[in-house]
Amino acid sequence: MSTKSQHKSVLFGLIAFAAVIVIVGIIGALTIDNEQDFIQGQVDVTEYRVSSKVPGRILEIRVKEGDYVKVGDTLAILDAPEVEAKKVQAQSAENAASAMSDMANAGARQEQIQGAFELWQQAKAGLEIAQKSYQRVQRLFDEGVLSEQKRDEAYAQYKAYEAQEKAAKSQYDMAQNGARSEEKRAAAAQVNRAKGAIQEVNSYIHETVQVAQIEGEVSNVYPKVGELVGTGSPIMTISIMSDMWGTFNVREDQLNGMKIGDTFTAFVPAFNKELQLKVASVKDQGSYATWKATKSNGQYDLKTFEVKARPVQKFEGLRPGMSLVIKK
C-alpha cells in the first residue's frame, strides 16, 4: 500500500472517531437535558392497635390477618380469673354496705324500742311516787312536824327520779327515731362506694372481650392462643382502609405546586394508572432528614419535607405500601 493511501486511511479513521465522539456527546447532552426527576412515595393508612386494660391469657382469637371487620365485631377473648375474683369481693362489699344502710334506715328493733319504753314507764312510776312523797313531807314540814333535813332529803330524791325519767324518755325517743341523719348519709355513701367498685370491675370484665371500635382490615395479629398479654399490650392492628394517603419525601427545591390544598398527579405502578392527589400537610423532617448541598463549598443546603396527600377520588384496589411516583 502506498504512503498516500495510508495517510488517507488514517485521516478517515480520525474523522470517523471525531464524528462518533460528537454524536455521543450530542446524544448524552440531549439525554441529560431531557432526563426527568422522579419523586417516589408510598401509600399509607391510619391504623389503631387493639389492646386490653387488664392482663390475661388469650382464650380465643376470632379473626385472622386480612379479615375485614365492622364496628362491634368480636376480635379476641381473654381469660382473666383475677378480675372475676375481684368482682366477688366487690359484690360482697356492696352487700355488707347495703345491710348497714338498711339497718341505719330501719332504726332500732321493735324489741329494743319496747324495752326502752318499759324503762321509761318504770322511771315515770318512780317519779310519781317520789313527787307524792315530797309533797307529803313538805306539808308536814309546813306544820312543823318534820325537820328541814327530812324535807331536803325528800326533795333531792324527787329531783333524782325526775332526771332519771327524762333520761329514760330520751332513750325511748332515740330508739324510735333510729340512727342519726349523719349516720344514714355515711351508710348511703358506703353503698355508693361499693357500687362504684362493682362498676369498675365490670368495666375490666368488659375488657376481656375485645370488639372492633372502627371498621377496617386486620393487618397484624401478634399473640397466639394461650399466650399471656399484659396491660396495654397490643393484640392486633386494624387498618382503617377508608383513610389512606400518600407520603412523599420532597426536597424543598421541588416543592413547587405542593402547598397545602394543591392537587397533583401521581403514577401508580401497581395498576399502571395515574391518581389525583390533594396535599393535606407539609412538614419539615428536621436536621436528621436527607439534605443536598447545592454548592460544592456548602453555601446552603436543601432540606427535606414530608408531604402527605389524599386521593381526590376513591381508587379501587389501592393498598398500603404501594408505590406512588411523581414526575417533575
Put simply, the count of helices is 5
Taking all Cα atoms into account, the compactness measure Rg is 48 Å
Mean pLDDT: 81
- Main sheet specs: 8 strands, antiparallel
> Rough shape?
rod-shaped
Which regions contain 5 or more consecutive residues with pLDDT less than 50?
none
Distance between termini? Answer: 58 Å
SSE run: HEEEEHHHHEEEEEEEEEE
The percent of residues in helical segments reads 40-55%
Keywords:
eight-stranded antiparallel β-sheet; 328 residues; alpha+beta; four-stranded antiparallel β-sheet; rod-shaped
Question: What does this entry look like structurally?
Answer:
It is a single chain. This protein has helices at residues 3-34, 81-106, 110-142, 148-177, 181-206; strands spanning 38-51, 56-61, 68-69, 74-79, 209-211, 216-221, 228-229, 234-251, 263-268, 273-284, 292-293, 301-302, 304-311, 323-327. The model has no long low-confidence stretch (mean pLDDT 81). It is α+β, with helices and mostly antiparallel strands and 328 residues long. Strands 1, 3, 6, 8, 9, 10, 13 and 14 form an 8-stranded antiparallel β-sheet that branches. Helix content is 45%, strand content 28%. The protein is rod-shaped, with a radius of gyration of 48 Å. α2 (81-106) runs antiparallel to α5 and α3 (110-142) packs antiparallel against α4. It is built from 5 helices and 14 strands.
In short:
By secondary structure, the protein is an alpha+beta fold. The protein is 45% helix and 28% strand. The strands form 3 sheets. Strands 1, 3, 6, 8, 9, 10, 13 and 14 form an 8-stranded antiparallel beta sheet that branches.
